[in-house]
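User: I'm preparing a small set of examples for a lab meeting where we compare how different chains pack in three dimensions. I only have the primary sequence for this one, and I'd like the structure in token form so I can line it up with the others. Please keep the answer compact; I'll paste it straight into my notes.
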Amino acid sequence: MKILIMGCGRAGATLAAMLDAEGHKVTILDIVSSSFRRLPSSFGGAVVLGDGTDEDILRNAGISEADAFVAVTQGDNRNIMAAQIARNVFDVPKVLCRIYDPLREDLYRSLGIEAISPTKIFSRMIKDLIVG
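Assistant: Understood. Below is the structure token output for the 132-residue chain.
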């Protein structure tokens, strides 16, 4: 599977390393070159320096051949914008997007983008602990 990940923070770097180790063709992109230091030395995928909301950067990163696109930067707006470009401009079959604002999660799902809110997951964990 060809996977393009936008954001090489802790989540993106960990995801890229795991998918690469499983044999997937992974490309990770970030706007800050020092972010790529988070990748393990064993990472065999490609790294691209650039903005994932720029269609030319996405083309250069191989989005046209991607089976999946994952947006996991720190910014909700950048994540959703890039996810919408991946879904609507490049017709990427599977698009995942991290959204910190739990109120936006359902809206983006209605647009065909799998949105994941760590805030909601954390809230569920607390509820499970208290209600048990």
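A couple of notes for your slides: The radius of gyration is 15 Å. Helices lie at 10-21, 55-60, 76-88, 102-110, 118-131.

User: Perfect, thanks.
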